[in-house]
Each structure stands twice: as C-alpha cells, then as structure tokens.
Design the sequence.
C-alpha cells in the first residue's frame, strides 16, 4: 500500500458501551460494511488513556502526532491561524455550565447558538476585566474568542484541557493547572458575576435558551507551521461535518458525525451515523473502490484512546491473523 494512501479519522468511533449499550455495539460490529472491512484490516498502532484523571480525547492526541505538533499543543487554539487573529496567545470559548447532582457540568457549546451581536455585547462587558490584568480579549466569532498578552512580563502560565473532552462531564478534573491557575479562576469568577445579570442573558432566559455564564480556556496558540496550518482548518470546521486536509503523510479526511452525536448525548443519532458510514466509507474501503483502490488507513478514536488500522487493497490470505470485528471497536486500555 502506498505511504500516501488516504487516511480517514473517525472521532468518537470507539464508543463507551455503557453509554451506547453493549448489545447494540456488538450488533453494529456485525454490520456488513464493517464486517467486510475488518477482514482486510490490520491494527498497526494504538494508544490508550493516559495515566491521569482525565485524558485528552483520542482523536486530538492522534492528530497532534500526525501533524507533528508538540504534545501539549491545543488543536482548538490553532483556529487563530485560520481566523487571522494577529498575535493571539490563547483561545477561549464562551460556554454554559449547568449544575449537576453535586458539581458543574459543561454543556455542548453547539447548543448556545450565540449570535454575532450577542457575542460582541458579552465580550465588551468583560474586556476591561482582562485589560486590567494585562490581557486583550477579542471575539472573532460567536464561538471562538482569543486573548492577547499585552505585558510580556506577565504571560499566562497555564496547563489547559480541551473543551471537547469535558463536554457533559464534571469539570473539576478538566480545570487549568499551573502557576497562574488561581489568577485564571479569579478572572473567570469576575466574568461570571458580570454576565450573571447581563441583558444578553436576560433575553436568552426569556427565550428559554441556555445562558452564557462562563469562559473556557482551550490552550495556547502554537507557532505557525505546516502542521499548525492543517490543524487550523480542522479547528474551524463545522461540527458534524466532513473535511479533508493535505498532510506530509498524504490526504487526511476527518468525519465528525459520530463526535457530534456523542457531544449531543444522542446514542440513536450515533447509531444512525455509524450505519451511514457502514453503507458508504466502510463498504467502499472493503471493496477497494474509488479513492480507496490502493488501500487506506482508518483511525478509530474514543474518549481517550485511538487505534490505527491499515486496510489492504486485497484480502489477506492469512485468515488466522484477521482481527475480531468487535474487538477493533474497544478502546485500547479501557476497562470494560
């Protein structure tokens, strides 16, 4: 198979059976497209959850490696390169936190549907708070905001966690750490108090929309480079969409349908998306049709792990080495 064969990355394809249902997941493993594909598949690499309370999403960890980004690079922050935000240092996102049983839970930001005007109003209200702390806030789009560090003697020193991994979860384990963690918490508390009675949120409450009640810091913007530019295109893609980028290792196609279903907390939507993939991409790969005629790579990613498969253009006669179709869908290192 050519080293430049196309790669298909499927975030959230290694689904948690306790969320999806073990019986339903087992049934999906026997769908015709996936069953045929697994007979041509060979796992060439994989990685499980990291040894810490919460690991970055598996697809983000794999993408950093594929694009040659530093291990601590924030993929979402690469959006600054696509948005043309000069000298942006950090990516921040307006979010809604709701109260769980005894903790705060991050709501899928896609549900905010924040308008340009509302985002601008909210940003103007809190910009002076950041300016007093040596930071400039810029709302480039309703969902993508940025911070510039105005004082080189006072950079933010934080270790951050990706928003995508924290959606629907207790945010405690996903909070920023580092020397300036307390400084950031103070800023966020001031933002929350300012927005609590803001007219934008009053209107949203009247319309029964989730309020914008906090900010999430995604990470530091990386230096410009080939990998960062490719990551920038991925970082500004529409949720649930399909995007192809060129990388040093050939074409990379990212299909977010399964991830969008997971972030929405909708198992049935996830199943429907899987079946659509089974009838299209999986079946075409198994038959080595179209762009997959020379073989392919398929990356399955879950909450914190990933598995990379190579799909041979012809069936492997060594049938005893064929992987189990269901086993390929278990997250590496996960406790089941």
Sequence:
């Amino acid at each position: 198979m050519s080293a430049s064969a196309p790669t298909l990355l499927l975030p959230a394809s290694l689904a948690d059976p306790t969320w999806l249902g073990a019986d339903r997941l087992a049934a999906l493993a026997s769908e015709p497209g996936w069953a045929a594909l697994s007979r041509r598949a060979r796992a060439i690499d994989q990685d499980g959850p990291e040894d810490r309370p919460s690991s970055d999403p598996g697809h983000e960890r794999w993408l950093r490696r594929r694009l040659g980004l530093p291990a601590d690079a924030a993929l979402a922050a690469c959006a600054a390169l696509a948005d043309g935000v000069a000298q942006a240092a950090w990516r921040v996102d307006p979010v809604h936190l709701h109260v769980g049983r005894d903790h705060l839970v991050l709501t899928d930001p896609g549900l905010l549907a924040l308008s340009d005007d509302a985002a601008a109003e909210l940003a103007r209200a809190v910009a002076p708070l950041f300016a007093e702390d040596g930071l400039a806030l810029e709302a480039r789009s309703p969902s993508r905001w940025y911070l510039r560090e105005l004082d080189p003697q006072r950079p933010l020193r934080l270790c951050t966690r990706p928003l995508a991994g924290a959606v629907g979860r207790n945010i405690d384990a996903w909070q920023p750490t580092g020397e300036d963690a307390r400084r950031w918490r103070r800023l966020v508390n001031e933002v929350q108090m300012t927005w609590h009675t803001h007219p934008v949120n009053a209107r949203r409450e009247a319309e029964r929309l989730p309020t914008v009640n906090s900010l999430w810091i995604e990470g530091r913007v990386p230096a410009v480079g080939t990998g960062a530019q490719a990551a920038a295109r991925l970082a500004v893609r529409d949720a649930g969409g399909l995007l192809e980028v060129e990388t040093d290792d050939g074409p990379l196609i990212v299909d977010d349908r399964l991830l969008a279903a997971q972030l929405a907390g909708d198992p049935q939507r996830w199943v429907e998306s899987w079946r659509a993939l089974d009838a299209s991409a999986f079946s075409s790969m198994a038959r080595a049709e179209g762009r997959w005629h020379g073989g392919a790579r398929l990356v399955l990613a879950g909450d914190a792990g990933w598995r990379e498969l190579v799909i041979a253009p012809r069936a492997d006669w060594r049938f005893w080495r064929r992987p189990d179709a269901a086993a390929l869908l278990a997250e590496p290192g996960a406790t089941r």
About this structure: The chain has two domains: 7-71+224-329, 77-220. The chain has a mean pLDDT of 89. The first helix runs from residue 17 to 20. The chain has twelve helices and twelve strands.
